[in-house]
């Protein structure tokens, strides 16, 4: 039992660490996914914006949902939210606390994707190259609007023949990349400041209530884990008794068929205990066949008497 | 000893899920690795492109899905529970559904990874749909009034850089960018769709069927544990059976040689007595040879004599001649 106690304590103290670890892994996976993804701007007038914004926002949504799925606590929270009241009242503050902690952890990987995308710049350039003002750059003076749009949409593709040697291509790229990186760093700075303020100011507001909700949310988590462990233990004991009962009933059946009852009452320790009265091939075959064709009922009440 | 089993079982049970998740993750990584190691080779012919591309997109996921089932050792348990005769224990379809669903969910991950990686890479989609590029938008449709068939043949060569000869019809880079863009958009949409499905499946369960779910989970674990314990019990039994059978064989050989006097009834506490017991009455070369020959030529029946079990070992010699008739009767009945 001591070892179980140690294992339980390990689980309890490390529930938060496990979740933080998963969160970190997802963040690393998000960066790795971005670097291995082969960005491919279509360089066509209407497709650019859709593609660019799609790459910027679809993967973060998928990463957010992944973060929710992989977090065990989201299930616990949902169960607590949806359970019938029964004999235990529900405390909404606990559910809110669990929800906010889950959301915070799940938001980290998507935010990292968005920031990396902005700092890299390719996506921003692809999405917004058609929306800049051509007057600011040379080389667009005597082009029709349609032509201008076409040329601008080819800016992200360096090797395209139309724009390869255009004087304004590099300028437009630099301009858009500068905006993209500024946006990226600003978002990063704002988020870090918000996180810092949230952490630093929390003890100023309602610390006692916070301690309570944190305790009870941990409690709910641990209670569910221990319930599952107890069910496993119970299932194992149940199975053990069921099988022993089955062997005994086989033994009784065999006894009834013999004319001379051997001295079973003298069964001592050692092999007799393990053999359980099954002592030859036909008896064993009969037992195995019966195990398959006539599984015993799930009822060990006679066995425990 | 049972305590140790208990702890090991508990560890395995709580980690059964983690073990299956681990295998699932390994298969997903293997699937991504397989894709990058696979040498994609588009045929660049009008009617073959679509077949090849769709084949590469859809056939390996099917194989991976089936492999996911094969590598899951709960499949045999599910099959057994499904096909067994009812006997005295009712079958619960909810338990079967739970087991099947949890296995299918895990088996779906590697195929989904393959399809996502294929679509995000773009080669496959490009190969399959290169003949459907909209030439009006991307190139000059009016180029030398080509017939449909000729145009399709040229477009089919888009994936193969070396043999493409339609640069005036539509620039290759433009077509490639277009196709890859659509492929990647489809890929990310697929990823988002799968993640949303997984999230809904996980999130809606506690809202609707939690009590039934707890029941199915408990009984499916129970079936697994019962099967394992039954195997353990049978192994224990087989061990003891074999031990007693062999002991009785040695005794029988001993008796046949008429050397029934070599034992003293009391157990000698000294080492010499223990060794004597271990020798089981066979103490010379001739007897041992006869025993070995007899073990090969004439194996004893799978039927333990009752009086040999009473005291666990062979020190109970002096009752043997009294119980001979009983031995014969027991043997007779077991043959019937």
Report on the structure:
- The complex is a heterodimer of chains A (305) and B (336).
- Chain A has 305 residues and is mainly alpha-helical.
- Chain A has helices at 2-36, 47-70, 72-82, 92-120, 122-128, 145-153, 169-201, 207-257, 271-275, 281-293.
- Chain B has two domains: 2-208, no CATH class; 218-334, no CATH class.
- In chain B, 71% of the residues lie in helices and 0% in strands.
- Chain B is built from 14 helices and no strands.
- In chain B, α3 (75-83) runs antiparallel to α4 and α4 packs across α10.
- The model of chain B is unreliable at 260-268 and 311-336 (pLDDT under 50).
- Chains A and B meet through α2, α3, α8, α9 and α10 of A and α1, α9, α10 and α14 of B.
Average pLDDT score of chain B: 80
Instruction: Calculate the terminal CA-CA distance of chain B, rounded to whole Å.
Output: 39 Å
The largest β sheet of chain A comes out as: none
Q: Give the C-alpha Rg of chain B.
A: 36 Å
How far is the N terminus from the C terminus of chain A? 26 Å
Beta strands of chain A, count:
0
The figure for the number of domains of chain A is 2
Number of helices of chain B: 14
What Rg of chain A do the Cα atoms give?
34 Å
Based on DSSP secondary structure assignment, what is the total number of beta strands of chain B?
A: 0
Taken as a percent bin, the fraction of beta residues of chain A is: under 5%
Largest interface: A-B, 77 and 68 residues
> What's the structural domain tally of chain B?
2
Question: How would you state the average pLDDT of chain A, rounded?
Answer: 84
Note the main sheet of chain B.
Answer: none
Weakly predicted, low-confidence segments of chain B = 260-268, 311-336
Order of helices and strands of chain A: HHHHHHHHHH
Helix content of chain B: over 70%
The 3D shape of chain B can be described as: elongated
Q: State the helix count of chain A.
A: 10
Main location (chain B): membrane
Transmembrane segments (chain B): 20-38, 50-70, 185-204
Subcellular location (chain B): Membrane
GO molecular function, one term (chain B): identical protein binding
């Amino acid at each position: 039992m001591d070892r179980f106690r140690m294992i339980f304590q390990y689980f309890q103290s490390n529930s938060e660490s496990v979740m933080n670890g998963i969160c970190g892994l997802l963040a690393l996976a998000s960066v790795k996914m971005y670097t291995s993804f082969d960005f491919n701007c279509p360089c066509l007038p209407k497709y650019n914006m859709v593609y660019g914004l799609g790459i910027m926002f679809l993967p973060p949504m998928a990463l957010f949902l992944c973060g929710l799925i992989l977090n065990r606590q989201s299930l616990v929270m949902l169960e607590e939210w949806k359970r019938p009241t029964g004999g235990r009242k529900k405390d909404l503050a606990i559910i809110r606390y669990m929800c906010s902690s889950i959301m915070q952890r799940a938001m980290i990987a998507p935010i990292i994707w968005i920031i990396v995308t902005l700092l890299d710049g390719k996506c921003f350039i692809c999405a917004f190259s058609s929306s800049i003002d051509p007057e600011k750059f040379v080389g667009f003076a005597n082009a029709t609007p349609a032509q201008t749009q076409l040329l601008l949409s080819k800016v992200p593709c360096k090797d395209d023949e139309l724009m390869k040697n255009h004087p304004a291509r590099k300028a437009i790229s630099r301009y858009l990349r500068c905006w993209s990186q500024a946006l990226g760093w600003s978002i990063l700075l704002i988020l870090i400041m918000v996180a810092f303020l949230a952490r630093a100011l929390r003890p100023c507001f309602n610390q006692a209530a916070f301690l309570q909700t944190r305790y009870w949310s941990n409690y709910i988590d641990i209670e569910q884990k221990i319930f599952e462990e107890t069910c496993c233990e119970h299932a194992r004991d149940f199975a053990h008794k069921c099988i022993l009962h089955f062997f005994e009933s086989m033994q009784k059946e065999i006894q009834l068929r013999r004319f001379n009852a051997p001295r079973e009452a003298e069964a001592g320790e050692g092999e007799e205990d393990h053999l359980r009265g099954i002592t030859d091939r036909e008896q064993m075959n009969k037992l195995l066949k019966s195990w398959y064709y006539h599984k015993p009922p799930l009822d060990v009440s006679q066995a425990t008497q | 000893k049972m305590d140790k089993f208990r702890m090991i079982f508990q560890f395995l049970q709580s980690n059964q899920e983690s073990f299956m998740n681990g295998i699932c993750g390994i298969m997903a990584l293997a699937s991504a690795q397989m894709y990058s190691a696979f040498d994609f080779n588009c045929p660049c012919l009008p009617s073959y492109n679509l077949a090849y591309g769709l084949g590469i997109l859809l056939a390996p996921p099917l194989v991976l899905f089936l492999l996911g089932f094969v590598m899951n050792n709960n499949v045999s348990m599910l099959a057994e529970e499904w096909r067994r005769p009812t006997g005295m224990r009712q079958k619960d379809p909810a338990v079967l559904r739970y087991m099947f669903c949890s296995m299918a969910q895990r088996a779906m991950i590697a195929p989904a990874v393959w399809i996502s990686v294929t679509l995000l890479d773009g080669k496959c989609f490009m190969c399959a749909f290169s003949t459907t590029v909209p030439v009006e938008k991307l190139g000059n449709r009016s180029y030398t009034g080509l017939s449909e068939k000729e145009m399709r043949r040229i477009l089919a060569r888009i994936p193969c850089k070396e043999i493409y000869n339609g640069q005036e019809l539509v620039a290759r880079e433009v077509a490639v960018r277009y196709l890859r863009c659509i492929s990647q958009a489809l890929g990310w949409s697929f990823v988002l769709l799968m993640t949303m499905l997984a999230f809904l499946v996980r999130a809606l369960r506690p809202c609707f069927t939690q009590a039934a779910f707890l029941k199915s989970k408990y009984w499916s674990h129970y079936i697994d544990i019962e099967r394992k314990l039954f195997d353990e019990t049978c192994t224990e039994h087989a061990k003891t059976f074999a031990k007693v059978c062999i002991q009785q064989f040695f005794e029988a050989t001993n008796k046949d040689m008429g050397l029934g006097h070599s034992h003293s009834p009391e157990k000698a506490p000294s080492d010499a007595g223990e060794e004597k017991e271990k020798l089981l009455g066979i103490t010379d070369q001739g007897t041992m040879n006869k025993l070995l020959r007899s073990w090969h030529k004439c194996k004893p029946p799978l039927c333990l004599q009752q009086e040999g079990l009473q005291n666990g070992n062979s020190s109970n010699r002096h009752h043997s001649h009294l119980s001979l008739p009983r031995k014969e009767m027991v043997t007779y009945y077991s043959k019937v």
